[in-house]
Amino acid sequence: xxxxxxxxxxxxxxxxxxxxxxxxxLPATPYEIEDALQRAHVPEGGGYELxxxxxxxxxxxxxxxxxxxxxxxxxxxxxxxxxxxxxQMDELQLTVYEGAVQLLLEEKGGGSAKLKELINLACGLDDxxxxxxVVNDISLGHACIQGSLLEFLVNLPDNVASxxxxxxxxxxxxxxxxxxxxxxxxxxxxxxxxxxxxxxERLPACGESHSGLLSLWIEKADAPDRNSRVWLELxxxxxxxxxxxxxxxxxxxxxCRIVDVNSIIPxxxxxxxxxxxxxxxxxxxxxxxxxxxxxxxxxxxxKYKAALELEQYPELDRMLDIAVHLDRYNFNPDxxxxxxxxxxxxxxxxIDTQDPAFSHFNFKEYGKxxxxxxxxxxxxxxxxxRSGQEIAQxxxxxxxxxxxxxxxxxxxxx
Length: 414
Known about the structure:
The protein is α+β, with helices and mostly antiparallel strands. It contains 14 helices and 12 strands.
């Protein structure tokens, strides 16, 4: 499936110097969507808009972004659903969809279409007929005359039919059908079933989703085939683990290997290898569960992600130690871009950054140096620093749990 991209831009930061938002590939899981909102620094319940990037079909690009970036309460979920449906279309379906979208825009008098309309249109392609290779009125006229597609042609003698102007006949049929030409053929609506997948409020499920905070697709190591694989949703108790092992005929987790990973932290998908210690991953999922139960769970999770970025996503034992001692880090989620931070430092000192003297000033490099002086490092989730306290190696080389995640978690300020 071809994946499209959007850039999530928070309403509150769109005017900040060099604020770039957060790029998200679609279709995405709910966890990936939430992660993009965090990276874009969209507050819970806050507004944002979507900027189109990547390989969207040109006709769809025009239909969505012609009059500006789409926004709204469900806009990211709607865009995700649309990308999922379109991504599963074959070339023929995509051509029919292009014609259907053109017809919709003509009915609306131009401009953009609502995502709800585009979603329901994509799910109703059976209502449209397609004639491949018919790309203008002349070729449509020839097809019409040969097939007697207009009523007056049915009983018309051949010698008279041969005198007809194919272009005029094609134009007459196109107007009668309310049809359109695409680069690949002729499309018109021949039915109206009135089917509606999406009512504009309740979004259908979309994107691969798992209930586990850390989900592992595992297989029996000595029988690597799809029939010996199962999703293990973590954190999991012993009964759940044994049930998963029984389903693939494995005696223990040590006899299994990881095929794929999904997580509340999307970056984990690329960080864990096939032979990672699954029981330690279960411990990590327990910490993620405790983070979720924190009254400020979203902020704490952003802090943990920032700490992992700072430590460059270390080995699993180190990730566990960081989760236990998250209070050893200071975190400021309000730093959304190095350029913006550099400018804010100057403004706080009473300097007018709009002065022409700053027309070629490198705010980004200045902001980076100022953060470094304060002991902080910029990450997509905000600025973070080590507090100076050493992180005890409670898992490094030992592999046991000795502290509760979340104790004394501090956010810090700059």
